Each structure stands twice: as C-alpha cells, then as structure tokens.
Amino acid sequence: MSAPVSLRPFLPADAPLLAALFRASIAELTGDDYDEEQQEAWSAAADDEAAFAERLASRLTLVAHRGGTPAGFIALKDNAHIDLLYVAPDAAGSGVGKALCDAVEALAKARGSRAVSVDASDTALGFFQRRGYVAHRRNMVPLADTWLGNTAMEKAFSEGAGQ
C-alpha cells in the first residue's frame, strides 16, 4: 500500500522541485501523445524558474506530498480554471491527481464558482472526462516552432453545491 497523499499550499521554496517535476512529467508521461519537439517546447515553460515560481504564486497552488516527497501540484486561476496539473511519473495513476482535483474543485465551489474549466492535454483528456468534464473545443497552441493540441473542457457544479 502506498503512503497517503497530503496537500499543502505552494511555498516559494517549492519552485525548483516543482519545475523539475513539471519537466519529468512531460518527458515521461506524454510521449504517446506528443513528439519530442513538442515535449521540449512545452517543458521550456519552466526554464525560467523565477517566472515559473511567479506563475505558481499568482494562483491558488496546492502541492501533493506522498511519503515526504512532492508527488504533484495543481494551480487554480481565478477560482475557476485549472491552469496546471502535473503528477510525478512514479505517482501517476496512484490517486495524486484525483486528490489535487478534488481539493481545488471543493475550493472553487466554496468560493462561489459555478464551474471549473481546464485546457486538457491529450494525455490528461481521459482523466478529466472520467471526472465529469465536458469537451467544448479543440485548441492548437503555438510554442516555440511547434504546435500543441489540447481540449477546452468544463465541469459544471450542481446548483447549491458548496454554498
């Protein structure tokens, strides 16, 4: 049995570890859906660790730990949009992503949001579909000299939920 997942708010000191987790997640988990050029362009978002840290700090960012080690993180923008959700490769499929999403969805509801949206990578599409997110449109995002596809999705909360 694996160690339980604990969640806590992002701290500025987390940035280097989360940047490394972000890069590892892209490199090791998205290869079936994106080619090497796309993965490198995507990973470059964490090359400037100060800017990456600022992005995390400007959102409601939660860090998941399992056995004292960062196992994933999620960043919620404006109480309504999952901007980032990444799980360490060795924690994929172990409930870390579920714990992170459960937490931000509950926080978004408690703060009055009627829905949460996400631009899901092709790798994460099934995960969000299983959570009740509905696809609205396909996006093609330019990064460096390549394009990355993702899907805009939304999960509406039932009336009165979390009120």
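That was protein one. Protein two is written in the same sequence-then-structure order:
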Amino acid sequence: MLRVTGAALAGGAVAGCSAAPGESSDTADGGGGGGDDGESSESTGTATSAGDGGSSGEWTQTSTVEMTDQLLYEPERIQVSAGTTVTFENVGNVGHTVTAYGDGIPDGATYFASGGFESQQAAKDGYSDGQEGNVPAGESYEHTFETTGTYEYYCIPHELNGMSGFVKVV
C-alpha cells in the first residue's frame, strides 16, 4: 500500500511540474484581475497568489526578478516607476516563461509575455506548440512598464505550482 501511495504522490508532483504545456487551470483564463484599479497592493485572491509571498502585500523596489529552480519569481512583488525596464533573469536550470494574465494588467497597458506574444492565449498556444516564450537557464526577458497600476504574471509550465508574480508601477 505504501508503494502505491508513494507512486501516486510522485506522479502528482511530476504532473504539477510538467503539466501539459498550454493547458490551463481556471486561474490562467480569468484568475488575474489584479490591475483593474491600478493602485491595489493586495492580491485579488486568485489561486495563483496563494502562499507566503502572495498574501504578504509587501513590495520590493527593484527592476530585477529572478526565476528560480524552486519555481518562484524572486521577489514575488516588485514596485517600479513608470518607464522602468524590468529584467526577468533565469538563475536556475529549469526553463520558465513570463506571461501576463490578460485580465491582470491595467486598462490601456501593453500586454507582455516572453516570446513577444500579444495575448495570454497566444502565449499559451505558442508554449504548447514548441515551448515558444521559454526563457532557458542563464537567459533573461525584459519588459518596459509604461502604464501605472498593478500587473499579475505567471510561468506557463509552473502555474499549477503557484509560480506567479506582481509588478506595481507608480
């Protein structure tokens, strides 16, 4: 019985890490919503923002976010001035994406995703069709945030593991 349980648990862990690219949970399609008012420092209560960092509400002033093998964006919540270019650096060995939730960016803001996609669905489809938008180990992705407000983003292959982050532009 322990052997079966262990195998089942291991299979679940692997499935969470390697969820079929492009597949989404309900959160990916509508879970963002963090940018409607443009000034909120609290999460919208989505599944992607659950966990220690997502509920803290503390913002770190930096323009660099690390993507780690622990399936985290570090720091999870950053604050920058409008016009700042943020660099998302993959400091681990596991590939990641930076993908904005379509409804998790301020009104009028430019959509962003590694791979240069113009919508969340296009980013998910691109990743599914050959890991387009993947940021390999040692590489980075940059985006300049022009519009004030709060942006919520996630990693396509690691969304189910809670890999999400926030950028507050003031």
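The chain has one domain: 21-169. Keep this in mind for the problem set.
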